[in-house]
Design a protein that fits this description.
The complex is a heterodimer. By secondary structure, chain A is α/β, with parallel strands linked by helices. Chain A is 51% helix and 9% strand. In chain A, helix 1 (11-21) runs antiparallel to helix 6 and helix 2 (34-43) crosses helix 3. Chain B has a 4-stranded parallel sheet with strand order 2-1-3-5, with helices on both faces. A 4-stranded parallel sheet of chain B has the order 8-7-9-10, sandwiched between helices. A two-stranded parallel sheet of chain B has the order 4-6. Classes of the chains: A alpha/beta, B alpha/beta.
């Protein structure tokens, strides 16, 4: 049995690493491409949300590459994501790939179901093994995302365009190949060093926050790598969603450093009840960004995404109340790169003009000489 | 004056809410049935990508505030009405969305969450009444009356009456009369759709009456009792976590299994989240049983002629299949 699973940005490294440690055979599907999206769009229900289509494409390409089983995260609602695995199993069966789909339900909600799937996948391992291996894989995933988050913050100061991206790629591949715990820690230090060695120059860098739906934020092919575009335009970027923050069971998010309560309390005046998915987090993080002196916020969401649409209905009020510009980018298979590029450029101009008008007090501004302010590591890892 | 928007869950709990509020002695106004003006008002204020029923809801709220000059809008937050499942995410966020769109509006809201237990669910009614200035004893009495009427109403529905018949009977307290069918054909269609989609005559382009005039009898998920649809929807391999979708799927399975329908018409809104997935799952299941299924997607641009053609073709096909 060889498992395959969807990409979701760098999430495949984490899943692949964990499966390797548990001695489960797997095939990583080819990177998300135009073909992936075409395949997904062809077979998925027309009105389903975009992440379903992309991950379906990943599954099909994975099966073509030789996999004969799928693994996917489940959920208990009310976001559609919880029903992806079941829908995709049906679609795959209809187009002739009758493969078993292992659905990992969240262990907090369905401990028994989770355990059963785990036992089916690796009958010889116990939960103790899982916990031991998960801890190391988790560390790796957190480090990878910290490298990513750090790259977002320092990209705006690079001297040669694209040098940060190159360094980040090398740092991540270093981490990807590290196996033992000490190796991972060493690779992380080395990776940070690589990013710090990139030649920098001092310039004015307005801060832009990126919030939105989980999948779209994590998968650079789908969001047209908007973070890199904005970073190379000279903006200091922070992102609200990271994979490890999202699945982290504790209260303090390891990458962004915000606790869950902090985010939810920030959102409470505007959205007091949870709405599934990332709806409340989007609003909470937007407000936190604004309070930290960010001058523009980009909201990314897939077309018809329910929780994000609720957020999007409320965000204009926040934009009005705090006088901060928002850019809403709705993404689906019809979205074109040129359209996104134009809108990002216009938004970037707007934010820069506002910045030059000196709206912010000086202490909130950022430049490379104050690099002590830019911290790659928010919280220590257990 | 308290305004009730005639949209979304009004078509499920409207009778209960109205009776409850009236018995509390509160002056209530219900917005008129959806019209072109209301839809346009909704399109004005609502987020452009959100599903049409929510846009219509915005329209009703705007109409209540601007045209009917209500002091407050009644808008409960229905989180869960049965233990294992949620309603739709949009119902969870609705009061906040409306508040963001109408910052000055006074919204009377209370969270109804059955997941926290039956007692807290009914406590929500009492809390709600407290916000409106009613004493606890009064609200319990009003709630009992309202529950009684809504029970009668659902009983009428389960015995096979259509939604409008049942409402009329409960409101005028008429006795049951045997309905004699004068149908030229005996095509039976199951209309699997949310009540706010099909009972809103303007939005659904009068779909149910069109079916009737074409000589088909129809049955809706409201005619199926809760315990039956809950049982049948649990046949899905993965538990479906939206109550109203469970109702559609469970009812459809029930009709299919009992041979109660010749075909299923699935009415959904463009950009409806749960329906986009459930429609596929149901189609997949209906295929196994050889039951034809027609999916109609409604939005602000849907036109009558197109709908008639499609229903006619579907009914003709069912007739030919039956012959």
């Amino acid at each position: 049995m060889r498992l395959t699973f969807p990409h979701m940005g760098n999430a495949y490294i984490f899943v692949g690493d964990l499966l390797r440690r548990l001695d489960v055979e797997f095939i990583v599907p080819p990177k998300t491409s135009t073909r992936t999206i075409e395949l997904g769009v062809r077979y998925a229900p027309e009105l389903a949300c975009f992440p379903l289509k992309v991950t379906l494409g990943n599954f099909i390409e994975g099966i073509e590459a030789g996999a004969d089983a799928g693994i996917m995260i489940g959920g208990v609602g009310p976001c559609r994501f919880g029903y992806y695995a079941e829908t995709q199993r049906r679609i795959l069966r209809q187009i002739g790939y009758d493969i078993p789909m292992y659905i990992l339900e969240p262990p907090t909600a369905h401990p028994l179901k989770f355990y059963r799937v785990f036992k089916q996948l690796c009958p010889k391992k116990t939960l103790r093994h899982l916990w031991k291996e998960l801890r190391i894989s988790w560390k790796k995933a957190v480090f990878i995302e910290k490298i990513e988050a750090y790259a977002l913050k320092v990209r705006c100061f690079e001297k040669d365009l694209g040098s940060t991206t190159k360094a980040k790629k090398r740092a991540i591949s270093l981490l990807e190949n590290a196996f033992s715990e000490t190796e991972i820690e060493k690779a992380f230090e080395e990776g940070l060093g690589l990013l710090n060695q990139v030649e920098k120059e001092d310039r004015v860098a307005p801060k832009i926050g990126i919030v939105g739906e989980f999948f779209i934020l994590l998968e650079p092919y789908v969001n047209f790598d908007i973070e890199t575009i904005l970073g190379e335009m000279g903006f200091y970027i922070e992102r609200s969603v990271f994979l490890t923050d999202w699945i982290n069971p504790g209260t303090k998010a390891p990458v962004t450093g915000h606790s869950k309560d902090e985010v939810l309390n920030a959102a409470a005046p505007y959205l007091s009840h949870f709405v599934g998915g990332d709806g409340r987090q989007t609003i909470g993080h937007s407000i936190l960004f604004i309070k930290e002196g960010f001058e523009g916020i980009v909201h990314l969401l897939p077309f018809t995404c329910m929780p994000e649409l609720i957020a999007k209905s409320i965000l204009p009020k926040i934009s009005y109340d705090f006088d901060i510009p928002f850019l809403y980018l709705v993404i689906d298979e019809q979205t074109g790169r040129a359209g996104i590029q134009t809108r990002i450029e216009a938004f970037a101009d707007l934010v820069r003009q506002r910045h030059l008008k000196n709206i912010l007090p000086k202490k909130d501004k950022i430049n490379w000489t104050q690099k002590g302010k830019i911290q790659p590591v928010g919280v220590n890892i257990r | 004056m308290l305004g009730l928007p005639r949209a979304l869950l009004y078509y499920k709990y409207g009778l209960l809410w109205e009776t409850f509020l009236k018995n509390l002695g509160i002056d209530i106004v219900t917005s008129p049935p959806t019209s072109k003006l209301i839809v346009e008002m909704g399109l004005d204020v609502a987020e452009s990508e959100i599903c049409m029923p929510v846009k219509i809801f915005y329209g009703h709220v705007k109409y209540l505030i601007e045209k009917q000059k209500v002091d407050a809008v009644f808008l409960p937050r229905m989180v869960a009405i049965e233990k294992p499942a949620y309603t739709c995410p949009k119902f969870l966020g609705l009061p906040d969305m409306i508040q963001a769109a109408f910052p000055e509006a006074n919204i009377i809201s209370e969270t109804f969450n059955r997941k926290k237990g039956l007692r807290s669910y009914y406590q929500s009614y009492i809390n709600l009444a407290e916000k409106l200035g009613a004493k606890k004893w009064h609200s319990i009495k009003a709630l009992l009356k309202a529950e009684k009427i809504s029970y009668e109403f659902s009983k009428k529905l389960h015995s096979g009456d259509s939604f409008s018949e049942a409402i009329n009977k409960v409101k005028t307290k008429k006795k049951d009369s045997k309905i004699i069918n004068h149908n030229r054909s005996n095509i039976r269609v199951g209309v699997a759709a949310h009540s706010y989609n099909i009972y809103d005559e303007y939005y659904s382009l009068n779909l149910l009456n069109k079916l009737k005039s074409m000589g088909a009898t129809y049955i809706t998920p409201d005619n199926v009792p809760h315990n039956i649809w809950a049982k049948y929807s649990n046949k899905l391999p993965k538990f479906l976590f939206w109550t109203y979708e469970r109702e559609l799927v469970g009812s459809a399975f029930y009709w299919i299994e009992k041979g109660m329908v010749d075909g299923i018409i699935y009415v959904m809104s463009f950009a409806c989240g749960p329906d986009s997935i459930v429609q596929y799952v149901l189609e997949d299941e209906a295929k196994k049983f050889g039951i034809p299924m027609l999916t109609i997607v409604l939005d602000e641009h849907s036109a009558e002629a197109g709908l008639i053609t499609r229903i006619e073709a579907f009914i003709d096909m069912l007739e030919r299949k039956k012959r």
